[in-house]
Specification:
It is a single chain. With 519 residues, the protein is mainly alpha-helical. Helices cover 67% and strands 3% of the residues. It has a two-stranded antiparallel ribbon. Strand 1 and strand 2 form a beta hairpin. The termini are far apart.
Length: 519
């Protein structure tokens, strides 16, 4: 046992040391851009292409997706003309900036520290990990907001309880992103994925209709399978190997309250004010969702899409919530004198994101250029075609699909984009061998989440690195990869085991949804 542990620690240590020798993440993206440009030129010269799985011409023949040289006149013009739009249109950027404006006030007014210190002073430390992991998996209903709200808060919660804050960040990241499809209730991801599944299934059976709850039982099972995995990895592997926090080594470390410290009368008054402000904001959002006019409900949409405006409003909701709670706390505790203090706190929060803005600029252009080259699309199509040619037992076939999706996820981050590419091949193929579209979708979800947490191409990966560096400045890209690798491996293995067991037993995947399919 000791020998195995030493070997595992040695492997993770090697990954961390090797990763930290890499150049700054900004220049990693620069080098990746240069590599993609070179590959695109070669692929275009060799006329590399693949038949598109969805788009067809007037005669019904698949349109070819051809590799495009990024040094063509059109693409050079596109790069230079669209540079501001490429940067400002980078998906996570707006979410991060908006939420951090409010979170900056809540943090610098002392609200976060006081609230977490008070809440965690009596809480058993060993229950923090499963609580954070579960909240992370449930929080993926809020999609992008979960990354910019729950993950940094988990670091504060762990630190306030006297535990390593980066372990809290890792557990929350594993829950939100590694367990991206796990949940107790269906959400907008279910609607999005099953919309794609339905289109693919109709190529074989035009009368097939999607069921938004078709994976409901399966994602509940994923939640309870992934929860102990994240708990074990955090407490038994990750936290034990993290370097101790050096006082003053990060922008938050010196501001933490000792969780055993009694709150002052001013702090208790501030927390009471913050609670009232939070209730008021919550009441407003409930009014907007269920009150007259229902601005956060799309009455014209289908049942599964009616709540889409509500989910999309959560980023703004968290901004308002943190701003109101932080300001109210500051007025009660005496840390906010007037509106000028609030503006100053917002400005300081933006200053902390300076490096992330530079990193986001490089990452945005790499993602854009990779998409313009069509290399990712061609790679995904050819890989899916290889799976189609395999004639394997159902559990093994689904395992290969899960592994393939996990690998593809290292290159194409969007869950809907990958499924839109894979579903037209995977869903009909499995239907023809007696596996339902709901089971195909469930298998895809397992592979899609596990490697989110180890690929720097995931848009929020650099942001998680920034969260860690706020506690430990020397924490590098290799440190984050080594920290998250055990989560990724065990989540993938446990997900594969769950899928294989589900197929072998033939459990229902959701209301009216089974593993088997028959015409």
């Amino acid at each position: 046992m000791n020998k195995s542990t030493t070997q595992a620690e040695g492997l993770l240590g090697w990954i961390e040391r090797s990763g930290n020798k890499l150049p700054d993440p900004v220049f990693i993206f620069v080098y990746c851009i240069l590599g993609v440009v070179g590959l695109s030129v070669i692929a275009a010269a060799l006329n590399v292409s693949a038949p598109h799985p969805v788009n067809v011409d007037d005669q019904g023949a698949p349109l070819l997706v051809a590799a495009e040289s990024l040094l063509s006149a059109d693409n050079i013009r596109r790069l230079l003309v669209s540079m501001p739009e490429t940067f400002t249109g980078f998906h996570p950027l707006g979410y991060v900036l908006v939420v951090m404006l409010g979170a900056g006030v809540a943090e610098r007014s002392g609200f976060f520290g006081a609230a977490m210190s008070g809440a965690m002073s009596q809480a058993p430390k060993f229950l923090l990990t499963p609580a954070v992991a579960l909240i992370g998996m449930l929080g993926n209903l809020a999609t992008d907001a979960a990354y910019v709200v729950l993950i940094p808060l988990a670091g504060v919660i762990f630190a306030a309880a006297g535990r390593h804050p980066i372990a809290g960040i890792a557990a929350a990241f594993a829950g939100v992103s590694g367990g991206f499809s796990a949940n107790l209730i269906p959400g907008q991801l279910d609607a999005l994925l099953f919309g794609i599944t339905e289109s693919a299934a109709e190529t074989v059976l035009p009368s097939w209709d999607a069921n938004i709850a078709g994976n409901h039982y399966f994602i509940i099972a994923m939640t309870f399978v992934f929860l102990p995995v994240i708990w074990y990895v955090t407490d038994a592997i990750v936290e034990r190997r993290l370097a101790p926090i050096v006082p003053g080594g990060g922008t938050l470390a010196q501001d933490l309250k000792d969780p055993a410290t009694q709150l002052s009368a001013e702090e208790r008054r501030g927390l009471a004010n913050a609670g009232l402000a939070a209730l008021a904001v919550t009441a407003v959002w409930l009014l907007f969702t269920f009150g007259p006019g229902t601005p956060l409900i799309d009455e014209s949409a289908s049942d599964e899409a009616r709540l889409t405006p509500f989910f999309q409003s959560l980023v703004a909701g968290f901004f308002v919530l943190f701003l109101a709670a932080g300001w109210a706390y500051g007025k009660g505790a005496g840390t906010v004198k007037d509106h000028r203090d609030v503006v100053k706190m917002m400005s300081e929060a933006m200053a902390d994101l300076g490096y992330y803005l530079v990193l986001a600029f490089a990452a945005a252009h790499f993602v854009a250029l990779f998409n313009w080259s069509n290399l990712g699309l061609i790679f995904a199509i050819n890989g899916a075609a290889f799976l189609e040619s395999a004639n394997l037992p159902d559990p093994l076939l689904l395992t290969l699909i899960i592994l393939f999706c996990a690998v593809i996820n290292l290159f194409v981050g969007s869950a809907s984009a990958k499924w839109a590419l894979l579903a037209p091949v995977v869903v009909p193929m499995l239907m023809l061998v007696g596996i339902s579209p709901e089971m195909s979708t469930a298998a895809y979800r397992v592979g899609d989440g596990a490697t989110n947490i180890v690929t720097p191409l995931m848009p929020y990966f650099p942001l998680i690195l920034i969260f860690c560096q706020r506690w430990q400045r020397e924490f590098g890209l290799g440190s984050l990869a080594a920290t998250m690798l055990p989560y990724s491996a065990l989540l993938l293995l446990s997900g594969i085991a769950l899928t294989a067991l589900w197929v072998l037993i033939g459990l229902p995947l959701g209301p009216g949804a089974s593993v088997e399919f028959a015409f």
